[in-house]
Design a protein that fits this description.
Length: about 270
């Protein structure tokens, strides 16, 4: 089948927050080979004005009804919803694009289900950088992957680790290291703040061997992620300084990463792994 005659894939989006709104707008404006089939939201009234502005308002459906009308689902929702969004799609051999990456670690069955049924779970680079290089290095031997994240206080507020350990970040006046551990531990303690560490770990040496420090820094306005990789093919370090979106926990570039991924799917020239 030529690219021109390729059938159009139907996309469903769950969650209209910082990421979902931008992705829906891009789909509404047009991405080759894709059509926006439906969305799922928690409170339709809250999004009535946004939906009315779209060129073509998609149907708003419960999560459980999306698989019947779509080939691809994009999860841009709170992490606990991940399994109910992804499971129906991968069980039917379809694709789930996942933003709440940390939740994959607590729902091992999903990747197994995708494997059994020919589905696919896709993790975009999201708020991070360089997952192409990390996956390439992982074809050889990676000796270590270390990440240091620095965030403004409001980008970390409310994380379970901070609440459980009664860390008073609101009154800090200088940078404070609030966590040091593995990507798996971070996914548990910071489910809405450290998906990037889990994405990095899945690209490289896994969630138990990827180490992470998290700093709260009252002087920062951006979410800063620095990664150091040492492998038998290369040694590299990379840093991204994300401008927060309307959601202070989420960098603006995250939605753009999803949109770029969607565009690559149907592109005649595809750059990057
Ligand atoms: N992989 C990555 O690089 C990144 C991942 N994330 C993660 O992506 C996810 C989405 O992030 P944001 O858009 O910034 O979050 P957000 O909080 O701005 O938006 C989530 C939306 O989901 C909606 N929602 C809640 N319950 C729902 C339900 N039952 N059905 C449908 N929608 C529901 C909320 O009302 C909200 O509008 C979060 O889990 C976040 O931690 C965020 C940044 C980077
Ligand atoms: O940096 C960001 O924008 C968001 C982030 O760390 C994450 O969700 O993992």
């Amino acid at each position: 089948m030529s690219r021109e005659t390729m059938s159009v894939a139907r996309v469903a989006v769950v969650g209209l927050g910082g990421i979902g709104q931008k992705v829906v707008e891009a789909l509404d404006q047009g991405i080759a080979g894709l059509t926006l089939a439906a969305i799922s939201v928690q409170n339709p009234d809250k999004h009535a004005a946004f939906l009315a502005e779209l060129g073509k308002t998609p149907p708003v459906l419960p999560i459980a009804d999306l698989e019947a009308v779509a080939d691809i689902v994009i999860e841009c929702a709170p992490a606990p919803l991940l399994p109910e969004i992804v499971r129906p799609f991968v069980t039917k051999g379809k694709t789930a694009i996942v933003l709440s990456v940390g939740a994959l670690l607590f729902n091992d069955d999903l990747v197994a289900l995708a494997k059994t049924h020919g589905g696919q779970i896709v993790v975009p680079t999201g708020a991070l950088i360089g997952l192409d290089a990390v996956t390439a290095a992982a074809e050889g031997k990676i000796h270590s992957v270390k990440m240091v994240t620095r965030k403004p206080v409001k980008g970390l507020a409310g994380a379970p680790y901070i609440v459980e350990n009664k860390i008073d970040i609101d009154s800090i006046t200088e940078p404070l290291k609030i966590f040091e551990g593995t990507a798996r531990e971070a996914a548990k303690g910071f489910p809405a703040n450290l998906n990037v560490a889990v994405a990095l770990s899945l690209a490289g040496v896994g969630p138990d061997a990827t180490t992470l420090q998290i700093w709260a820094d009252p002087a920062l306005t951006r979410n800063v992620h620095r990664v150091e990789v040492d492998a038998d093919s290369a040694r590299f370090s990379m840093q991204i300084e994300n401008i927060p979106s309307e959601n202070p926990k989420t960098g603006r570039i995250t939605a753009l990463s999803v949109i770029a991924l969607l565009r690559k799917r149907g592109a005649a020239l595809r750059v990057g792994t």
